[in-house]
């Protein structure tokens, strides 16, 4: 398969109990991208839900993937799909929650550390490189002394839920812009910007 295909993985945990957790914001963004591409996710042997399509008419070809493993085992499905579709790491995008940036903020990067994010750590290990793209969706830091794991496994708060559709839309826009025009263009648009 041609290398112009992109693999976009939305990270999270499987099952309805986790669906609205902060940790699952990557999968929420994938649902938005799927609505734009058109079609529905189907089970794939790589232990992921997959949707193949194009971003817009004649746009880039994408494989949207939601790993059906727990977050800290995201690497296996991502690496399997990359191999299956012949996609190099420089055409892999991981969309994930990020506690180190404020809620309603989006940052993009390629490579670098995983910031204690076990899903990213597993992907880096499985791909044998850190040089893949990340769309980092800010979910804020835990209040007080709350444990980070408890915080990310909770649903968004009432006020956050009102802003969440805008944040998800912006994260989907950021992923699209990254794929269409490159990292710099996406960073210039979204870094320092907050959602409406």
TrEMBL record:
<feature type="site" description="Discriminates between blocked and unblocked aminoacyl-tRNA">
    <location>
        <position position="13"/>
    </location>
</feature>
<feature type="binding site">
    <location>
        <position position="72"/>
    </location>
    <ligand>
        <name>tRNA</name>
    </ligand>
</feature>
<dbReference type="Pfam" id="PF01195">
    <property type="entry name" value="Pept_tRNA_hydro"/>
</dbReference>
<comment type="function">
    <text>Catalyzes the release of premature peptidyl moieties from peptidyl-tRNA molecules trapped in stalled 50S ribosomal subunits, and thus maintains levels of free tRNAs and 50S ribosomes.</text>
</comment>
<dbReference type="GO" id="GO:0005737">
    <property type="term" value="C:cytoplasm"/>
</dbReference>
<dbReference type="GO" id="GO:0006515">
    <property type="term" value="P:protein quality control for misfolded or incompletely synthesized proteins"/>
</dbReference>
<comment type="subunit">
    <text>Monomer.</text>
</comment>
<keyword id="KW-0820">tRNA-binding</keyword>
<dbReference type="GO" id="GO:0072344">
    <property type="term" value="P:rescue of stalled ribosome"/>
</dbReference>
<feature type="site" description="Stabilizes the basic form of H active site to accept a proton">
    <location>
        <position position="97"/>
    </location>
</feature>
<feature type="binding site">
    <location>
        <position position="118"/>
    </location>
    <ligand>
        <name>tRNA</name>
    </ligand>
</feature>
<dbReference type="InterPro" id="IPR018171">
    <property type="entry name" value="Pept_tRNA_hydro_CS"/>
</dbReference>
<feature type="active site" description="Proton acceptor">
    <location>
        <position position="23"/>
    </location>
</feature>
<protein>
    <recommendedName>
        <fullName>Peptidyl-tRNA hydrolase</fullName>
        <ecNumber>3.1.1.29</ecNumber>
    </recommendedName>
</protein>
<feature type="binding site">
    <location>
        <position position="70"/>
    </location>
    <ligand>
        <name>tRNA</name>
    </ligand>
</feature>
<dbReference type="InterPro" id="IPR036416">
    <property type="entry name" value="Pept_tRNA_hydro_sf"/>
</dbReference>
<dbReference type="GO" id="GO:0000049">
    <property type="term" value="F:tRNA binding"/>
</dbReference>
<keyword id="KW-0963">Cytoplasm</keyword>
<dbReference type="GO" id="GO:0004045">
    <property type="term" value="F:peptidyl-tRNA hydrolase activity"/>
</dbReference>
<comment type="function">
    <text>Hydrolyzes ribosome-free peptidyl-tRNAs (with 1 or more amino acids incorporated), which drop off the ribosome during protein synthesis, or as a result of ribosome stalling.</text>
</comment>
<comment type="similarity">
    <text>Belongs to the PTH family.</text>
</comment>
<keyword id="KW-0694">RNA-binding</keyword>
<dbReference type="InterPro" id="IPR001328">
    <property type="entry name" value="Pept_tRNA_hydro"/>
</dbReference>
<keyword id="KW-0378">Hydrolase</keyword>
<feature type="binding site">
    <location>
        <position position="18"/>
    </location>
    <ligand>
        <name>tRNA</name>
    </ligand>
</feature>
């Amino acid at each position: 398969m041609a290398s112009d295909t992109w693999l976009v993985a939305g990270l999270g945990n499987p099952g309805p109990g986790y669906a609205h957790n902060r940790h699952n914001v990557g999968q929420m963004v994938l649902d938005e991208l799927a609505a734009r591409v058109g079609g529905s996710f189907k089970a794939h042997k790589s232990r992921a839900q997959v949707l193949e399509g194009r971003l817009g008419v004649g746009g880039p070809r994408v494989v949207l993937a939601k790993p059906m493993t727990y977050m800290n085992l995201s690497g296996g499905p991502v690496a399997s799909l990359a191999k299956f579709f012949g996609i190099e790491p420089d055409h892999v995008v991981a969309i994930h929650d990020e506690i180190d940036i404020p809620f309603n903020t989006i940052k993009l990067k390629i490579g670098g550390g995983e910031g204690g994010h076990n899903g990213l750590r597993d992907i880096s290990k499985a791909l044998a490189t850190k040089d893949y793209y990340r769309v980092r969706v800010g979910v804020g830091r835990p209040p007080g002394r709350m444990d980070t794991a408890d915080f990310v496994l909770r649903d968004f708060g009432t006020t956050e839920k009102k802003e969440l559709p805008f944040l998800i839309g912006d994260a989907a826009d950021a992923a699209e812009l990254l794929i269409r025009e490159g990292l710099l263009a996406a960073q210039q648009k979204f870094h320092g910007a907050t959602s409406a």
